[in-house]
Amino acid sequence: MANATSFAYSDLRAYIVANWNYIELRDSLGNAFIRLSTSDTRVSWTHTVGSQTLELTVTIQGSNSDIQLPSAFSQSAIFKVATAGEAVSVETFPTFTMEGVGDELVIKHRMEVPRI
């Protein structure tokens, strides 16, 4: 059996950044609050290019018009599509309850894509 090359892992990471364009914020039961595109100003890829750890950062505030208060966030999930679809990555974090317009939540969803 052959092994993937370093170029193959680089190509996979580039594919993920180019095509896994939506992140959903969820409660502890996996119920969705909101799904945001990487084109939204609150979302960005923040990893170092070439790193085997891909990092997508989301910053939301209680003052955002699409955030209903109070909300208790516990998971983030990455998708290839804007609605429905199957998550390609899910990360759980300690529950954060956003209660007021002055509250802010920063989520760093990290995924490992190994390299040789």
Q: What does this 3D model show about the protein?
A:
By secondary structure, the protein is mainly beta. The protein has one domain. The chain has one helix and seven strands; from the N terminus they run αβββββββ. The protein has one helix at residues 6-19; strands at residues 22-26, 32-37, 43-45, 53-61, 71-79, 89-98, 104-112. The protein is elongated and about 55 Å long.
Describe the secondary structure blueprint for this structure.
Elements: H1 6-19, E1 22-26, E2 32-37, E3 43-45, E4 53-61, E5 71-79, E6 89-98, E7 104-112
Antiparallel strand pairs: 1-2, 1-5, 3-4, 4-7, 5-6
Short description:
By secondary structure, the chain is mainly beta. Helices cover 12% and strands 44% of the residues.
Which tags fit this structure?
three-stranded antiparallel beta sheet; 7 strands; mainly beta; about 120 residues; elongated
Question: How many distinct beta strands?
Answer: 7
The unreliable regions are none
> Which band does the percent of strand residues land in?
35-45%
Calculate Rg over CA atoms.
Answer: 15 Å
- Helix/strand/pairing category: mainly beta
Multimeric status of the protein: single chain
Domain module count: 1
Compute the number of helices: 1
Distance between the termini: 15 Å
Biggest beta-sheet profile = 4 strands, antiparallel
Main β-sheet, spatial strand arrangement: 2-1-5-6
Q: Give the ordered list of helices and strands.
A: HEEEEEEE
What share of the residues lie within helices? 10-25%
Shape: elongated
What is the arithmetic mean of pLDDT?
A: 94
